[in-house]
Design brief:
single chain; mainly alpha; 12 helices; 76% helix; 0% strand
Length: 411
């Protein structure tokens, strides 16, 4: 049996576990919860065996390397780490509610490998990766990413339970109008050339940063705005995944040698047909409204199972307290590795830059917790923003930008 087959079996197991955990929340049956836990444990064991088998296969092929060197293997290891940490949290806190939020992350990460057509071939390392630092750098970094992923899932639960009401409908309309205004500006500026495109993204980054600062400083006093942020996070995750799935189905017949990365979102938001692009954005706006309108109903279900907000806040803190030192270690080992490979500790490569941004976001979280004594809403917002930065550092940089880490892409 090949390792790729075991990974496929693990993907199915995580899909079943995801469905069972969500069903456990919906129907409140303890038997369903126990079945969800059992399937998760089984999937983790199968994936562990697959990782070991892939390592052995590399030696049988005469390559002999740790299975952590490309996007396929790193996604697999990220999933394994996330499920492992979740299992520990479930055992320690004796609650399965987190599984309804964590297991979708695990399943979608593995499913993304299949829908994106990422190669699972075991290939020799490129010269820059032939170093003992590979194992330490990737292992430490992805354990940190996994801890942040669990913290994000728990933060989403906290923010939803923390909401009393949705707030005025005008908040939603302001957000929808912002999308309708900003999207055409982005298209127009991108059409003017690379410099204008970069200026648009920098400007958008400043706007998002301002929103983030407002939420952190005023979040506890303006919870409807935080609920809007929660709706934004959920909508962003769903719409991106659906769009990538549509792209994959549309690109089945793309020429040999072409990468999925090159055609990312060309079937939806970047389609040459204006009606298709408009329909894609209309779907996002509709999804945003649906998430915002139905979130409070989901809260009523979650409050019957979720631990107290103090426990949710504590678990988020513990996950970040574990993940931040690991991320720090990943950056340090990466710098040492870069010096041995390229003769410089730091080159402001896009992934290096975004790793530093992510590090600062979580440093702000820990500083606010230790020095300012913050708890609750603001901390959950920082945790959520931190994981969005993790996702862009991990996938966004590889799929959208180019640099020294481009070998981690999807070609």
């Amino acid at each position: 049996m090949e390792s790729s087959l075991l990974f496929s079996i693990a993907t199915v197991a995580y899909l079943l576990a995801m469905v069972m955990y969500i069903s456990y929340v919906a129907f409140r049956k303890e038997g369903i919860g126990k079945a969800a836990s059992f399937i998760t444990y089984a999937g983790l064991l199968i994936q562990t065996a697959a990782l070991v088998m892939r390592w052995v296969e590399s030696y049988q092929m005469g390559i002999g390397r740790v299975p952590l060197s490309n996007l396929y293997e790193s996604l697999v290891f990220f999933t394994w780490s996330t499920v492992l940490i979740y299992v520990v949290v479930e055992w320690k806190y004796k609650t399965r509610i987190f599984g309804a939020f964590v297991m979708p992350v695990a399943f979608l990460a593995l499913a993304f490998i299949n829908v994106a057509g990422i190669s699972n071939d075991i290939t020799p390392l490129v010269p820059a990766l032939k170093s003992n630092w590979l194992f330490y750098h990737v292992l430490i970094s992805f354990l940190g990413y996994a801890a942040f992923g669990v913290a994000f899932a728990i933060s989403m639960i906290f923010l939803l339970i923390d909401m009393d009401e949705r707030g005025p409908v005008r908040d939603l309309w302001y957000a929808l109008v912002a999308i309708v205004v900003i999207a055409p500006i982005g298209y127009a500026m991108a059409a003017q050339g690379e410099h204008m495109k970069q200026a648009f993204w920098m400007g958008l980054g400043v706007v998002i940063l301002a929103w983030f600062i407002y939420l952190v400083t005023r979040g506890a006093k303006n919870k409807p705005m935080v609920y809007l942020f929660w709706s934004f996070c959920v909508t962003l995750a769903i719409s991106m995944l659906v769009a990538m799935g549509i792209d994959f189905l549309n690109m089945k017949g793309m020429p040999a040698g072409e990468s999925f990365k090159k055609h990312l979102f060309e079937a939806t938001f970047l389609n040459q047909s204006l009606p298709i692009a408009l329909v894609s954005w209309a779907a996002v706006i509709g999804l945003f409204y649906a998430v915002w309108a139905k979130g409070i109903a989901l809260k009523k279900v979650l409050t019957q199972y979720a631990p107290s907000q103090d426990i949710l806040d504590d678990v988020t803190y513990r996950m970040i307290a574990i993940g931040w030192p690991l991320l720090t270690g990943g950056i340090i080992t990466g710098a040492v590795w870069a010096n041995s490979a390229w003769g410089t500790y730091w080159s402001w490569d896009p992934k290096e830059t975004w790793s530093l941004i992510t590090w600062f976001v979580y440093a702000i979280y820990l500083h606010a917790r230790y020095v300012r004594g913050w708890k609750g809403t603001q901390m959950a917002v920082i945790s959520a923003v931190g994981f969005l930065a993790v996702i862009f550092t991990y996938l966004g940089v590889n799929l959208v930008l180019s640099g020294l880490h481009s070998y981690g892409g999807m070609n």
